[in-house]
Design a protein that fits this description.
Strand order of the largest sheet: 6-5-4-3-8-1-16
Order of helices and strands: HEHEHEEEEEEEEHEHEEEEEH
CATH class of the largest domain: Alpha Beta
Number of helices: 6
CATH superfamily of the largest domain: Hypothetical protein, similar to alpha- acetolactate decarboxylase, domain 2
Number of domains: 2
Length: 252
């Protein structure tokens, strides 16, 4: 009887290990990994068709930014929650069935925190970050938290076919919001220059306020003693769209 009990316990433990190991292995593999849907070059050319659902995107990250099918606003992902900041400046929860034509996500794991001293503008913020990064040849996920004296952010409205170029949408249709003394989080990435046709070279941030009510794509701002959490991303994966618009776009 004791032998049967011991054998049963062994079988149970093996079953638990076998069921947990794939999940654990997936989490280990995804550490310090960036995942991207489509390319900036395609978005620039007006390829706004959805290439992945948010259910798929969540399998690759809980932190990130991007946009929505039809270029319908700015996407912010933080702590596993995803938000759509529409052209009215309001942040709406994202449902799994919604699609994205371009997004970048990661499972954020803070490696180090940088305390940035003094009050600075956006350019000075980037300079302080650059001065403390070990190299500018790797991608970074960056989370900046604090109370921001001033932020200038934008969003864009949903587009209709035939889709215009991204530069035309931004120059003619973007809505700009100016926020003062706002508490929130900047979700962003810093990409090396050699990836400029794949993603935004340099810094790219989207804001979500602490109450999750508003946000947008960061254009400018003033920052007072912000805290920046950094993760180096040594693996970068890209899922290319499976649609005619991407296949026929002029991406040279």
């Amino acid at each position: 009887m004791k032998l049967k009990r011991h054998l049963w316990l062994v079988v149970l433990l093996v079953a638990i290990v076998v069921s947990v190991l794939p999940v654990y292995s997936q989490q280990v593999l995804q550490t310090h990994q960036g995942f991207q849907v489509s390319t900036l070059g395609a978005l620039n050319m007006g390829v706004y068709e959805g290439a992945a659902t948010f259910a798929q995107l969540k399998q690759h990250g809980d932190f990130g930014l991007g946009t929505f099918e039809g270029l319908d606003g700015e996407m912010v992902g933080l702590d596993g929650k995803f938000y759509q900041v529409k052209s009215d400046g309001v942040a709406y929860p994202v449902v799994d069935e919604m699609k994205t034509p371009l997004s970048v996500v990661t499972f954020f794991h803070k490696e180090r925190s940088l305390r940035l001293n003094g009050q600075m503008n956006y350019q000075e913020l980037q300079q302080q970050l650059d001065a403390q990064l070990p190299t500018q040849n790797l991608p970074y996920a960056i989370r900046v938290r604090g109370i921001f004296p001033y932020l200038k952010v934008r969003s864009v409205p949903k587009q209709s076919l035939p889709y215009p170029l991204l530069s035309d949408v931004v120059s003619q249709q973007q809505t700009i919001f100016e926020l003062r003394n706002v508490r929130g989080t900047l979700v962003g990435f810093r990409m090396p220059q050699y990836l400029k046709s794949v993603n935004v070279a340099g810094y790219h941030f989207h804001l979500i306020t602490s109450d999750r009510s508003s946000g947008g794509h960061l254009l400018d701002g003033e920052f007072l003693h912000p805290t920046a959490d950094i993760e180096t991303l040594r693996d970068w994966q890209i899922m290319l769209p499976d649609n005619t618009a991407f296949e026929q776009a002029s991406l040279d």
